Please model this.
Amino acid sequence: MYICDNIGNCEGHLTFAGIDTTLLAEKYGTPLYLMDEDKIRENCRIYKNAFTKYFGENALPLFASKSASFKRLYEIMAEEKMGIDVVSSGEVYTAIKAGFDLKNAYFHSNNKTDFDIEFAIQNGIGYFVVDNIQELERINFEAGKQGKKQDILLRLTPGIDPHTFEAISTGKVDSKFGSAIETGQAEIITCQALEMENINLCGFHCHIGSQIFETEPFYKAAEVMLEFISLIKEKYCYEISQLNLGGGYGVRYTNNDPVFDIDGSIKQVAKSIKEICEIKKLSIPKILMEPGRSIVANAGMTLYTAGTVKEIPGFKSYVSIDGGMTDNPRYALYKADYTVLNASKADKTPDFKCSVVGRCCESGDIIQENVNLVKPTRGEIIAVCTTGAYNYSMASNYNRVGKPPVIMLSKGKDYIAVKGETLEDIVRNDI
Ligand code: LLP
Model:
């Protein structure tokens, strides 16, 4: 299985979701985000099927919408019967506008503002995933004010190090997220939640990190969480009904990344959960997971137009494209790997070693260093693969560059899911 096994159509052009990418670039302009709707649905179904098979009918995968958030995606998630994980009022509002039923929405974040809490309760958010005591108190207060009893999960840190990039590792004791089991803070917040009048404690949540290719950290985390659930049951006679194991499965950005079997991994995690529940005499809770990257990353591709090709003899060569860190900041932030291709000459052998760089006024504006490309000439189309996660959602207007449109592809057809920002959009909020 390759990241992009297309060696060009009869004209030597790269295709994506069965469509000639150069024609899409011509039709919509570049930079351009492409999203393969059928692939997104296929990825959702991998989770849905595995969940039903191994965890039972009531288990629910939630799409972590921080990885990509716009109305059309929430519609697709509703159609695929996925829940969602949201982290801001902006994501909640987008989901509402898409008609997504918020009863299957879980509101995360380590610092929900008073407005977030008020707005989400007003709009009937299903659950808050509560990070800390101050937030718990505020939710209790706001729910009381609105005459509601609010369902929550508590975010706990199980102390698992999943060996991923430091910036996206979150389950360790000293993480900024959640309440640590090891320090006793998890037990304290649980007791407080149980005593609060307007709070209904439904379960616990943990998220250990992102871009993880091993199953072991997941069942280790599940083990620690079940251990804690058992302790709470014994000490306080309270058995929670939901366990959320977070997101984090890795995807292949280049051929160096391993192929990961999500179904097989979920099977193993489920087996381990069943065994522990049996030993500890716990009922198997409703299991949730929150995949983001593994739902949308490989459904995405970004197209650019090559501009300047600069060769510095004895040093290095650059291919400048008409986007960059504004539409994909992941290399600048994490030195993230990507597969880059000359989409106009996909049938030729890559032989030009270069760095593909953006057009922002800063040297760190790099899409990828030292890639092998078919040497482009100005005007040819450059494709960056696997950009469906954390690209559009992390895009910025640095240098007052407008965000590219998102074009959905399905069954050989293309349609606009998000319009590109115009120059007028750039000044819209300026007074
Ligand atoms: N649940 C929670 C609580 C999370 O914090 C995250 C990701 C997820 C689920 C989804 O994880 P995924 O399945 O997508 O790995 N911007 C970084 C990734 C940050 C991940 C943040 N949390 C990147 O571009 O790699």
Summary: The longest strand covers residues 300-311. Residues 108-291 form a domain with the TIM Barrel fold (CATH 3.20.20.10). Residues 64, 66-67, 85, 108, 168, 170, 207, 210, 246-249, 290-294, 330, 334, 389-390 surround LLP (CB under 6 Å).
